[in-house]
Amino acid sequence: MTTPEVTGLTAPLSALLGKGTKTGTADPAAPSAAATAPAVPADSAPGTSAATSPATAPNMGAAPGAGATVVPAAAMAGLPGMPPVPSAGSGTGGATSSAVPGTASAAPGAEHYLGFAAVPGMSAIPGTSAIAATQTVPDPNSVPATGTVPGVDAVPTMGTVPGMDAIPTTGATPAASAVPAPETAATVPTTPAVPGIPAAGAGPASVTQQFPGAQRGAFSPEMARRDVPILHRLVNGRPLVWLDNGATTQKPRQVIEAVAAFYGSANSNIHRGAHTMARDATALYEAGRAAVADFLGAPSPEEIVFVRGTTEAINLVAQTWGRANVGPGDDILVPVLEHHSDIVPWQQLAAETHARVVPVPLLPDGQIDQFAYADLLSSRTRLVAVSHASNVLGTVPPVAEMTALAHRYGAKVLVDGAQAVAHFPVDVQALDADFYAFSGHKLFAPTGIGALYAKPELLASTAPWQGGGNMIESVSFDRTTFAPAPHLFEAGTGHISGVVGLLAALDWLSSFDHEAIAAYETQLLAYAQQVLAAVPGLRVLGEAPDRIGVLAFTLAGHDPTAVAQALDLEGIAVRSGHHCAQPALAHYGLDSAVRASLALYNTPEEVDQLAASLLRIQQS
Ligand SMILES: Cc1ncc(COP(=O)(O)O)c(C=O)c1O
User: Fold this and answer.
1) pLDDT at 52 over 50
2) For residue 492, what is the DSSP state?
3) Any domain includes 186
4) Which one of 101, 301, 513, 557 is CB 3.0 to 4.6 Å from 290, fit for a cystine?
5) Which of the seven top EC classes does this enzyme belong to (predicted)?
């Protein structure tokens, strides 16, 4: 493998290069033949694209000779199984930003944050104000533990942002070991003990005694919290308690800095042009792909398609593989606990193909009824679409077993990993998943970037869903030839900085012991279940034995939205509503609930605060 010359990257970025190559077969910096072919495709100089990797676009005509699939352009639109090419306005957000006038100025936090150097109290993010000084940018990996942590002292001075409270400490964040921490009991407002449950910060047992998992491996929630600036702000005069991780996770400074450094020193479009910047950006992008493959246990980066997120990944499968492989009378099995993103695309596909979406019922405790599932599987089943973890009940279904059973009937299995990836290790090969989808923003990475894993034979036999640059090898009005997967499915300019942020997030996460994170979260969930059970009138939905730290609940006599609003007044962010899982709520006779969702940086003290606030609401 050749290593491309990558000379100009700032430390946060150069440190990320080469990540994710532990098990990946492709050199991220020098994409393999298959990846390289489309890496210099459409818009590149003639003759630079490698025509050695056959692109297979079923239903689009066979490629004579050269290996790439050749499609008479005139015939493209009318080919069976070929999804209509979306118009410019209906693409993945193509027209949305300009269609929302004033969006940028309506996001004061974002605007403010991009102006690092100008913000009082903030030191410049490497690569933003000192683009020229790329060689002198400190490498965050080499930051001594006791020194000032770059980026942490750069926490935005929220007091300057309209509507945001000032962060209590204005100076440099103290050394890691001495961070006074909103996360410690000392700064968390004293919460009345929940009857029968000693407050985590008040009892004789230390947090680590109660949560030994916090000390296992190289992980503790405090370590994670130190990296996440937003967790140190105030909301409504109280330290933020972020319990809305199911909706999105907060971002570590490593991610924020990597994105800023990309735009500050490395921004370029990828896969085209011969200049250094394009090569560097391409190397980062492909390093991101390799890191995702590594993270999911995928055999090769070529099985990873970048998408906007889980929703787009599922729609991609529905509109490509689904249209080609699901027909009249076929069944798509979808458990009742699925997110709307894993229901509606299948309903749309079924309506189009005259197939059926068959709900797989739940047991009272929120588990998928495995007997009913086995009964519903048949030779008509083309696909099973199942979450690796439920966003409302927390249930972690036995996906490997369900997949093995589905495969006996020749059905494919799509796993929605949106809620799983941040909580426990994933191995798509062990699951034998045919498709696996996730969103970066639920994994401490930016919004607008996610990934779809698909088995190579599925990618190789699936038609693209969008046409444009990057996904072709050559275009003429006589014939168009296509790039191989994964680029075949990545038409247009991707979310390059999002991939950089995702790469940084995976790197950050991999600095902790993933098993230790899972163990800690299991203990934190058990603790949360215990303290919430002591709140009169509180009913948690779902009690599956295997679950993630998602607690949807109702509070007798109180509207869920009113509960969420009352919690917000105390700085506690939870979500209320149907959580895009209306069938799951209907299973409990509900159309709305409150949801607290935990992540690795949440603490027992925060759980205490939630319970104490709920008690107050209940007594009000
Ligand atoms: C289980 C599950 N699937 C899919 C989605 C959709 O994710 P996104 O909106 O990032 O595409 C979510 C989001 O909450 C989810 O929880």
Assistant:
1) no
2) S
3) yes
4) 301
5) transferase
Q: Is residue 83 a part of any domain in this protein?
A: no
The verdict on residue 272 lying in a domain is no
Domain count along the chain: 1
Digit-coded pLDDT (tens) for 151-194: 333 333 333 333 344 333 323 333 333 323 333 333 333 333 33
Q: What is the pLDDT of residues 396-418, one digit of tens each?
A: 999 999 999 999 999 999 999 99
Q: Which two tokens stand for residue 122?
A: 């903030």
Distance separating alpha carbons of residues 504 and 258, to the nearest angstrom: 7
CA distance 260 to 116: 10
Q: Is 56 among the residues known to form the active site?
A: no
**pLDDT over 80 at 356, yes or no:** yes
- Give the bridge partners for 414, in sequence order: 385, 435
Is the pLDDT score of 351 beyond 70?
Answer: yes
Separation between Cα atoms, residue 439 and residue 249, nearest integer Å:
11
3-class DSSP state for residue 70? strand
Is the bond preceding 486 in cis, omega lying within 30 degrees of 0? yes
CATH of the domain at 584: 3.90.1150.10
First to last CA, the chain: 67
**Helical residues (DSSP H) of 534-603, grouped into ranges:** 560-569, 582-586
Expressed in angstroms and rounded, the spacing between residue 311 Cα and the centre of ligand 1 is: 6
CB distance 439 to ligand 1 below 6 Å: yes
416 CB near ligand 1 (under 6 Å):
yes
* Residue 478 confidence class, pLDDT cut points 50, 70, 90: very high
Ligand 1 neighbourhood includes 311 CB (under 6 angstroms): yes
- The ligand 1 atom at the shortest distance from the C-alpha of residue 391 is 16
Which residue's alpha carbon is at the smallest distance from atom 9 of ligand 1?
Answer: 311
Q: Is 470 in the pocket of ligand 1 (CB under 6 A)?
A: no
What are the tokens at 44? 């590149």
Structure tokens at 228: 């996440």
Residue 563: domain span: 166-232+513-619
Exactly one of 580, 590, 592, 616 is catalytic; name it.
580
Q: What predicted TM-score, i.e. pTM, was given to this entire model?
A: 0.74
Predicted pLDDT at 327:
98
